[in-house]
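@channel anyone free to eyeball this complex?
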Amino acid sequence: MATTKIETDHKLNVRMFITGLALVALYAIIVSVMISLGVSLVLVIVIAGGLLFSQYYFSDKIAMFSMHAHEVTPQQEPKLHEIVDRLCLLANMQKPRVGVSEMDMPNAFATGRSPSHAVICATRGLMQRLNDEELEAVLAHELSHVAHRDVAVMTIASGVGLLAGLVSRVALFGTMFGGGGRGRGGQNVVLLEMATLLVSMVIYVIAYLLTMALSRYRELAADRSGAILIGKPSVLASALVHVTGDMGRIPRNDLRKTEGMNAFFFAPALAGGTAATLFSTHPSLEVRLNQLAKLEKELNG
Amino acid sequence: MGLRDTLFGRSKQAAPNLDNLFALSTAALTLESELDLVPSGHGGLCFKAGSGEGTLTTDADIKELLNFDETNNKVTLTKDDLGFEWLLVADPDLESLVTRIHSADTSMVEHGLGARLLCAVFGFVPKTPPGEGSLRLVYLLKQGTFYPFAPTGPDQRNNELELRVRSFLSTDLPIEKDLSRWMALWNVPVE
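replying in thread with the prediction:
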């Protein structure tokens, strides 16, 4: 964020700070619970840390693989490269690698452990649905994620959720085998087990909700920076309308090709709803459009 | 599908539903009054000419099956680049166009080829060009539902217009509710 000349949104910063603070507080609770249960801290930290680090370190490869994306050269996708080149000059940042996923679902993502290892990727469905200006707006949003180091931030945040999950399992294990002999009767052990399970579940849910909230704020921050970078919040708004909701679900694939086989039979081979889950970490369209409309007024006023 | 069909991996091929085709006439009136779109006078039936016994192997077979009248230049048979057969009908009167498509459908179903039918397509054009651009109404024979398709380029479609068509026609036609089934038909030979 440092190299860009983008003004900060103080309210958004405050909300992000509070969310982060709540995550830290939760982390403290988890650690104290673990210590009180006498769990081997080293083991927990080594496992959780190892998983998290690999998730962070290989974030570009994991995301590219799961989205069936491949890197493209300027010769293969001249338009995409040109837009990214222009935006990087504008924002004064290092150009990330550029990838394309042949999926029909309109989507774009940026990932990589640092700006120098970043990759920015768009699906074929996105490029077909949007005009050049709208595509530029979406790529500006994704470049903002790179500039904000969102992969690192979200890895740390989701690490707490992972820890919570680990603790719930370790705690349960500890009660069943370590604490079993302590109890005077069987009933106490059962009660203790249930209480631990309940507490760990509540912790997990809270951690998950907080991570999602943080993710949504990071999205709004990227919307904001992206819109300011191209100077036209309304174009990003129009792109969002085109790729989310009803319009995003109308396919570009041909009825007669591959998936067209579904038309011959009554029950579809593919279950719906995959796109919806991907967007659950994002704020609602209404919230994003409102912010962009406000920004448009500020920029023009 | 029943449990036994699931266990043995059999899927029943759905029988085509042809009754809803005749609802097109009222839909055409709505399209004209709301969106200034009128029937182009072209319609088509898309099917897969398979191989094997009891299927259509030559053009002559298909023509015979569909009561093809050689002197009638309003009906043509073409094959598209994706290997599907198209029975194309030109008739300025929408009612008789629908009747022709329906009788071709019925004939194929009677010959046990109902499972090969993919869709029927009807063309609509702006009354005063350019207007909204052209529109196709696609009828999914197995589902018995319609959906709008408004191509604007080789792989571009006008989703705004399609969704507006849905809102106007939802009372006249059984519109396909699952938007992910609104598959494109690029280079559709129906004008």
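from a first look: Chain B is about 30% helix and 25% strand.
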